[in-house]
Amino acid sequence: MMKNLKHVLLGTLTVLTVLFLTGCWQKDHPVRTSLNVDTSTLTLAVGESATRTATTKAQWDYQITYTSSNPAVATVDQTGKVTAVSEGEAVITVSMDETIKSWYAAAIRTYNVVVKEKEPGPAPVVTVTDLSMVDCAGNARATMSTANCYMVHTAGDYKLPLVYGNAIKDGAANTAAYTGITNTNTTATFPNHAGNAIDAPWITKATTGTGADKGMGIVVSTAELLWQDAQGLITAVGIIGDYLTLTVGKNASEQEGNAVIAAKDAGGNIVWSWHIWVTKETFATLTTITTTDDTSIGTQGVNWQIYKVTSVNLGWVATGGDGKQGYNTYYQWGRKDAFIPGTWNANTNRTVYDISNTPVPRLTYEASTTATIADNIKNPTTHYFNSSTKGPCDTQYYNMWDARQTLTGNIKTATKKTVYDPCPAGFCVPTGNLYYFMCNGISRSELNWDATNKGKTWRQTTYSSNTTGPDLYFPASGYRHTGSGALSTVGSLGSYWSASLTSGIYSRYLRFNAGYWYYNNYVRAYGIPVRAVAEE
Fold it and tell me: Can you give the pTM of this predicted structure?
């Protein structure tokens, strides 16, 4: 029995010895292993990435390492993610720890990475809004209507046709805007920058065209931002074909403002210019005033007229006072050109900037008895004064803003807008009868002066049978003096042009101070605000 026990113990010891030695061998020398990873060539574009994760069938856990031969071309992290950095080639090596690599070549794998330049994607879609195809609220029009002033509400890319003022209306050539009437005190033609009669809508299109496609054949080479009254309002301008292009950098909700952009010929001469008004205003709310043909109220004679009056001045930018404090652009009578604004309640010019947002002087004054309408067009930032005609040029025409006007006095017909009218499409400078009615004739005492906001309200309840809509607030924006172009009486006097005259020297306008409304006359070289009315 002892002999059998001895044999059992000896057998057990032998088995344990074999198992121990086998375990030690396997620890130092595992069974043949395999390292699996996709070794086909990996092609990526710059910026792209892909992951190739290696797997193993080793009986023990060993660390797998990933390396790149050229990290400047392609990098790899320890999860196997390869990222393309630049054009070229690299080799990715995948291996297990050094013990395994020294025993088995199967523990190392490599593959090539080829990196190419990224293919350009499709060009971004840029929406360019044609300002002649939207109304003052930004709503689409069915047909083109052009103007000397365009209202913009949002940042973006825009274009406007190289057309003389409102020479295209509702898609057709608006010949009434550039064909006057032969009379002693009127012009039958309206000159362009070269002094030639405007006889077609387009500045640039061929003279062989017809109707709304006819042009003057003038070559326009460049565009220039003459001024903007807020930095970054306009960030780019240019000429593409028959259009002037512009980029508005700010929404009206964050920055309102004004700018003037000019189109130039190869010689650097300004051919025409336009006022861009970045504003929250849409002219959606108008006050309707039905005038009478005398100073009595409530009786409509044969010459009564309906005016739909806008709620703010051209170029108005509110700065406070619930929209009643602010500033606006100024205009010499008969000119289309918006002059730089001032500041609220001060006779101080507002700082204006060029396209690089550098302050620039953009108001000059010139006393000249020889300056012409063409000179006015070529120099839209020059305030002219002719001591003989008392106007901005050497003429005394009655019909610069009202094409068919041959009369002076209290004009009771609607304005026939010309190519020199400064208002947006669908609006114009009112004839004098509007202000005659508002002043109850020549003057009307009313003490509703707003001493806080420096302005006055014309209350529609005063003439409730003749007026519908909200009251009209008029800020006391003063004027630019005829003898210097300097601002005066801002905060104490309000002045507003009409399209009518009392003579070749004097033009009718609305005037008010703290105590009275006046229907008065100014020499035409003054620069004063405009309150537009809807065209009929």
Answer: 0.79
